[in-house]
């Protein structure tokens, strides 16, 4: 039905169709609501619009200088095969590590990783400092206002992003290759010379309140898991600044953060898509003022096991989210690779999720939990690994009155791993999947850059992906069972968030659970 | 239309291109080549090789999507996408799934309004196998009646999930009202009634009409050898895919209707609003200027680092007056039209101010665009376009989409040349054409009792004075 205007002609309107009110209400169409909407539809109205236009400003002509896109190319270029991949190069400038790899393309990723995180924070002293620095590091500096920073970056075709975690702080800069010096200079300025004006701090506190109120159950469960698993030791510190500590964020704390963590030894600068010499030269100049210093220290983190419960009365979908967790080794643990294979082998996801084969449809948690328990809305294995400890576990969701069943099923999955060896087929599948994921992700310049930087910060060296693949190949069934047994030798941790946690088992009810002993 | 464009191209643009391309750095001019081969029957194979790559993406891009459906079979393209994974005469559903998972690959598909895409991400050595599997599921899908019946509930469940995403829901409503009565106004999933009633015959018919050699592009990127890819594609698809007939499937033209659709839920806590003007097609001379305009208007989020300091004037004003939780500018292109507009999530008591500032900032571009913001947006747009090509999955997607929309792959040099050629006068002209005194389409969901009516917003699509 083509009433109305023909494309290209102007100011032909369809007459008013009128307001139509609908009363039918499909929960399929509008899920998450209980009451029907009032729906109105209205088409443009000729009479009104044509009335008032005598005085309108004359618009400029609508012709432009550019031709449409046709089959014939506008410019001819010299095409060439992509160059052979380069190796990662490393240089130390007076204790400061610089590592990079050249990669063809018009964009460059540069980043700085700092050995700082919420595990170094202390209640009442600098709680929330890392999260606050992440939010504040793009604000006014000694040389630029906040708006200068943003508009200059935009004008350079660059983007800077910061991310804090429990033990690493990362700031990255992606820019057009030609502008990498100018863009990185802004990133460095943000990192070293923020002035933390009172209005910047106000904005930051407001955003922190907003994040606290908007954070979903999935994020809270993970945040709570670390507190439950590591208790009062450093890795158990909250990462997102708790509401009661937000008022305490101040400029002094931010300057203290800088002088404590920004030392040459505690930083790694890296990049992908840049000549190494160019990066070294740039870093030498820009970070010259960063002093040498001791690495920051904190108490060792000790896995304790425990629980976290948060009642969330107004959550949208009415589901309770539960995660169980067990201890695994740190980044430095020799079982790191088999632990990651175990996570892939358990796999899982949402009971309804996008994506075809390859997302782990034949992983353990799909076959034995999601496909069997109609009430399990989600079940997914996760690992949270840091420099001095880690957790492996399963996180999921269900209607509140099935929370106990869900928890038991998760614990059973781990218990089973300690007694029944995994099959050859599922181990091979998990190995292939993790290898495919690693290699595919490292095709991305941003991921590659971050991988180099984080590995240099963590290990002081970078392992070539082919080495990682060899380690994956070497994983055996016995490795998997050994890790599961070690994990279950300490009490499990449990973290839950939802509208009703009555059916979530208490820590005391599950703390006695152990797998088969060695 | 093509010849017309060519003529304009050589007459008005040739010198611009020659002058500016010489100044580009080598990484722009010497980009890796996109090899394109057309096989007998019209099937095109296009690929870009990344040397040293261990993995690859290979996809089948089909010039078909929900807009080519009718009211009766709306949802068929998407239904077929589901059925492709449910087994062929060679593989059962489970065999297919296990095969992909065991080889550490990924197989996925999506349907949009104009395109249907199936793709696989695999190890280098598995590329031929991936092509074989893609061919198998596309050309030899069993379409088992019982499986079709089982899939109805899955799709209805997917509908619920899609509609939980307010952004998706509102863009569906926006298309429904803006392109009412035409194919482009229909949803991708189709109405519930069709999902419950589509038959095997409908799906088979859809394959016969649309899955044809001349409407398909096989696209590859990463660890791909173009010659080998062509050979494998020839073996797998060559004799099995119907070649393009003389009669092309007629496309129902899109007709934009100024209109709005409002779905009021007073108990929701946030209002979702999409306001759009009719935009330009993929190949329009206005396509790139609109992208620059999109970048000028920008996007903003309350939690983003930029806060009130965003370069976009609209962003500054939204942040300053706390008008919204977030907004983004969108610029959707189709074969013969487009939608250019702003999607915002806002509290209910700010909606009138929000609409005032949004329209004022859009119309501002007609009269008061500054050289500085155009220059900044141009550089930003170049960076965004390069950024999107990070990794072979994105490159393969880019190749496939461009071959379907432009008929060729634009080189980075051409993209840069087109962006560089745009000046402030072009942006004003583009805004004058698409925004000034034009009817708009609007969709809104949530507590929208204070959202101004159609005429309030329509009146603000032009200015009487500065």
Automatic annotation (TrEMBL), chain A:
Pfam families the UniProt entry points to: Peptidase_M16, Peptidase_M16_C
SUPFAM superfamilies for the chain: LuxS/MPP-like metallohydrolase
GO molecular function: metal ion binding
Source taxon at top rank: Eukaryota
Annotated Peptidase M16 N-terminal domain residues: 98-242
GO cellular component annotations of the record: mitochondrion
Domain Peptidase M16 C-terminal: 249-433
InterPro entries documented for this protein: Metalloenz_LuxS/M16, MPP/UQCRC_Complex, Pept_M16_N, Peptidase_M16_C
Role of this protein: Substrate recognition and binding subunit of the essential mitochondrial processing protease (MPP), which cleaves the mitochondrial sequence off newly imported precursors proteins.
Family: Belongs to the peptidase M16 family.
Name listed for the protein in its UniProt record: Mitochondrial-processing peptidase subunit alpha
Species the sequence originates in: Triparma columacea
Automatic annotation (TrEMBL), chain B:
Catalytic activity: Release of N-terminal transit peptides from precursor proteins imported into the mitochondrion, typically with Arg in position P2
Key words of the record: Hydrolase, Metal-binding, Metalloprotease, Mitochondrion, Protease, Transit peptide, Zinc
PROSITE patterns the UniProt entry points to: INSULINASE (PS00143)
InterPro entries referenced in this protein's UniProt entry, alphabetically: Metalloenz_LuxS/M16 (IPR011249), MPP/UQCRC_Complex (IPR050361), Pept_M16_N (IPR011765), Pept_M16_Zn_BS (IPR001431), Peptidase_M16_C (IPR007863)
Subcellular location: Mitochondrion
EC number in record: 3.4.24.64
GO annotations of cellular component type: mitochondrial matrix
EC category: hydrolase
Stretches assigned to the Peptidase M16 C-terminal domain: 197-381
Name this protein carries in UniProt: mitochondrial processing peptidase
Annotated organism of origin: Triparma columacea
